[in-house]
Amino acid sequence: MTLSLALDTMGGDHGPDEIIPAAFFALENHHDIELLLVGPKTALDKIIAGQSSAHASRAKVVNALDVIEMDESPSSALRSKKRSSMRVAVEQVKEGRAQACVSAGNTGALMAISKYVLKMLPGIDRPAICTTIPGIDGHTHILDLGANVDSNAEQLFQFAVMGSELTSAVENISSPKIGLLNVGAEENKGNDRVKQAALLLSDSHLNYIGFVEGNDIYSGKADVIVCDGFVGNIVLKASEGLAEFFTHHTTAEFRKTMYGKLVATVSLPILKNIRRKTDPRRYNGASLLGLRGIVVKSHGSADKVSFAHAIEEALLEVKKNIPARIASRLEELLSKD
Amino acid sequence: MTLSLALDTMGGDHGPDEIIPAAFFALENHHDIELLLVGPKTALDKIIAGQSSAHASRAKVVNALDVIEMDESPSSALRSKKRSSMRVAVEQVKEGRAQACVSAGNTGALMAISKYVLKMLPGIDRPAICTTIPGIDGHTHILDLGANVDSNAEQLFQFAVMGSELTSAVENISSPKIGLLNVGAEENKGNDRVKQAALLLSDSHLNYIGFVEGNDIYSGKADVIVCDGFVGNIVLKASEGLAEFFTHHTTAEFRKTMYGKLVATVSLPILKNIRRKTDPRRYNGASLLGLRGIVVKSHGSADKVSFAHAIEEALLEVKKNIPARIASRLEELLSKD
Fold first, then answer.
1. CA–CA min distance B94, chain A (Å)
2. What are the chain B neighbours of A234 within 8 Å (beta carbons)?
3. How far apart are CA B183 and CA B189, in angstroms?
4. Whole-prediction pTM value?
């Protein structure tokens, strides 16, 4: 069966200039897929004509003239941009023409549109954004990263169920270790919502390992880390800021002296390897979980290679049938009540 | 006038083995101070006898036999350890024998004891922990880092007042730029408490620059960043985790090949410089603000150099008279209501 993915070509900082090459890269790697390139047909046709590829027949343009700006409010995007590339891309999933959608656009708008068009799975109050973070020992799936700013204990529990199912499927782990992000590992630590969520998790059949702290995000101690979107968003952006800070000082130190410049030259391949391994975006492609369909959010600044990762993530979720797995796990949990 | 500081010698991972040498280092650098070394007299006398210093006459042991464990609950520490080194050190400040206290011990216990013994300044509901974080462009004071886990808008506002006064005094900035940590820079972003705190800050005479995001912590965009302790604690620990992760991968990459080992040797001084500049603990010494007295918390894993930094921070706060400055600013703000 040919899998079909819809790409919002107008999202992100670079738009079709990086997204179309990423699409053709994916077509070359996967002969069993077709891609619906959603955006302004005339402009896209021109960019596609510039791609010398034997796979152009599997790239289909779906015309959509509106563009949602990166700083547009979700409600304005939802109300007044009914023919935006993002909306039309999500609709391809709703209408069964695509099995997943990938966008590098405005996160709030993508969340609002996906929720409105695709609807939530039964038993899930709100969607959550989940991404993979590299760690010292393996890597960790963390959610929510900002879909919500005030989640209660029940919602944190739902995030744990969704994160557990996603991780189990994509990592082939039968029972992923779930940690709840808190200010300390002891039971009496934290605010009411994490304490209540801990009780729900302890009572469940999930592999709950207890509270984890901020430093555990990068240790690989848990397979899944659950937190409120307010905390998750700030932690993820702080990590990006700290990575930039390291890069800034590394570059500055090597540039400072002639000796430094010489050393930089000989250590270049090693420094490149370090940067590649420690780039928090090397697993680009965050999942919007809890929807009746697969939507993957790429980082807004994603280049070709990075956006291609997001396409891979979407493909993997299609092959693993993530929404159905989450729905069936929830049904199982709810029927036990 | 001779300034006097009380040091809890039994706090932290290393106790007196690192804290006593740090104390003597501070005595050598500051001829106008004396240090009250609080802990078990017999053991401390032995360690002090091993320090060949002309300054031993300015180091006075204050006997205290109990020790608060790093994982002890604040309430147990408060109730059952009335002669602990931490409690006695804080009491030196209360009784006017010291102008400040420094401890590397259990943060929750230090907070509870300081609040109980010293009491809060009028107009402040709860203490806040404030530390300095190095940035690409200068550095930033951030609070609260975990004294509280559920601060409301009024409390966030009080943190802003305290952070502004501290930063103004120690950095000699007349009107420090205050940012409120949030998931986006737009006014409609965030949870209710940050939106309400933003209104209070906008209405005040503080130099409020609006919402800042996680990545701004390391950019130096704001002089003071205000957040709830739940978020602040997790962000700070995540940064420590990410720094460890970078170090781990840097070391691993350089060790992988003979070529890497050679390059590591020539780049050693540069790598050391980078590590020094990017170490989030290089400004060790977090202030417990809002109390009627100066209490500085050192990182638990602090070594001699690092603990000496915390002593420097305490000295600076004594010289700048931080609690009195905060109290007078609050009185000014409250009288305007």
1. 28
2. 181-183, 213-214, 227, 231, 235
3. 7
4. 0.90
Q: How far is CA A115 from CA A77, A144, A292, in A?
A: 13, 15, 9
The shortest C-alpha distance from A203 to chain B (Å) reads: 24
Residues of chain A with CATH 3.40.718.10: 1-124+290-321, 125-287
Q: Could A237 and B278 be called an inter-chain contact, meaning their C-beta atoms sit closer than 8 Å?
A: no
Q: Peptide bond before B150: cis, by omega within 30 degrees of 0?
A: no
Closest-CA residue of chain B to A151: B191
Residues of B in contact with A149 (CB under 8 A): 183, 189-191
A250 vs B183, B189, B274: nearest CB: B274
Is the domain spanning A125-287 CATH 3.30.70.260? The answer is: no
At the second CATH level, the architecture of B1-120+290-323 is 3-Layer(aba) Sandwich (3.40)
CB contact under 8 A, A214 and B239: yes
CB–CB contact A215 B230 (8 Å)? no
Mean of the pLDDT values across residues A272-292?
A: 80
Name the residue of chain B whose CA is nearest to A139's CA. B245
Nearest to residue B68, comparing CAs of B89, B47, B48? Answer: B89
Rounded to the nearest angstrom, the gap between the alpha carbon of residue B205 and the centroid of all alpha carbons in its chain is: 26
Domain at B125-289: CATH code: 3.40.718.10
Read off the pLDDT of residues B109-150 as tens digits, 9 standing for 90 and up: 999 999 999 999 998 988 999 999 888 878 899 999 988 888
* Mutation target among B136, B212, B234 for the A interface, most CBs of A within 10 A: B234
> pLDDT tens for residues B32-49?
999 999 999 999 999 998
Residues of chain B with CATH 3.40.718.10: 1-120+290-323, 125-289
**Do residues B23 and B59 touch, judged by C-beta distance below 8 A?**
yes
- Looking at 3.40.190.10, 3.40.50.12780, 3.40.718.10, 3.40.50.720, the CATH number of the domain A1-124+290-321 comes to 3.40.718.10
Please tell me the predicted confidence (pLDDT) of residue A331: 86
Q: How far apart are the first and last CA of chain A?
A: 39
At position A118, the amino acid (one-letter code) is: L
Instruction: Quick: pLDDT tens for A47-96.
Output: 998 887 788 899 999 999 999 998 888 889 999 888 999 999 999 999 99
Tell me the ipTM for this assembly: 0.88
Task: Give the three-class secondary structure for B65.
Answer: coil
